[in-house]
Design brief:
Number of strands: 3
Strand content: 5-15%
Largest sheet: 3 strands, antiparallel
Radius of gyration: 33 Å
Helix content: 40-55%
Mean pLDDT: 75
Structural class: mainly alpha
Strand order of the largest sheet: 1-2-3
Number of helices: 7
Order of helices and strands: HHHHHEEHEH
Low-confidence stretches: none
Shape: elongated
């Protein structure tokens, strides 16, 4: 009688609302048991075995029974993770640092290469100082006051540590003197009236 339904019994069909209830119950129970299992397993294995023997009150929903059975066995199998390890797959910028590694020997020519992010964001003056734009100089200008927009248009000098680092991250091509017509930075290329 395979494939035929017995007329005396009506087949049980799980409705969509019961599946949603089962999924919601599984999320709530696992969310409640996860911190408890981590704290119990961290203390002693005897407590972990004891917690697996504790029976929760009987629930009459078949979906809840199906959800509860694997959770009881997985209580002590939950690995110990701190909050940063749980969230880091969701927000990779928490653990991954920006990588701007310097190439000492390129594959094609075997020469040193400059870091592109330094060339794009900063400018080197002939005296060895590096200048940059202020952060946020082109972001959401509509809600910034005119005085703040004026401050954001200004260029600022990088400090000594940053300038030495940028010199290491660029080749001699970017440190040469350039002569441009109507160069707005011409008067800043040489340092005057400063005791070195």
């Amino acid at each position: 009688m395979r494939g035929k339904i017995c007329p005396s019994r009506t087949p049980y069909v799980r409705t969509h609302s019961e599946e949603n209830m089962a999924a919601a119950l599984a999320r709530r129970v696992s969310g409640l048991l996860r911190p408890l299992s981590v704290s119990l397993c961290a203390r002693t294995p005897q407590l972990c075995q004891l917690s697996s023997l504790i029976q929760p009150p009987a629930l009459y929903n078949s979906a809840a029974v199906a959800v509860r059975a694997p959770l009881r066995g997985a209580v002590c199998l939950t690995p110990r993770y701190n909050i940063l390890q749980r969230v880091s797959p969701l927000i990779p910028s928490l653990t991954q640092q920006p990588c701007r590694s310097l190439t000492y020997y390129s594959v094609k020519k075997g020469k040193r290469k400059s870091v592109n992010s330094v060339k794009d964001r900063f400018m080197r003056l002939h005296c060895g100082l590096w200048i940059r734009r202020k952060a946020g100089y082109k972001k959401k200008l509509w809600k910034k006051l005119p005085a703040r927009r004026k401050r954001l248009r200004e260029h600022v000098f990088c400090n000594k540590t940053q300038s030495k680092l940028f010199d290491k991250m660029t080749t001699s091509f970017w440190k040469r003197r350039n002569w441009y017509l109507d160069d707005p930075y011409l008067k800043y290329h040489n340092r005057v009236n400063l005791k070195v």
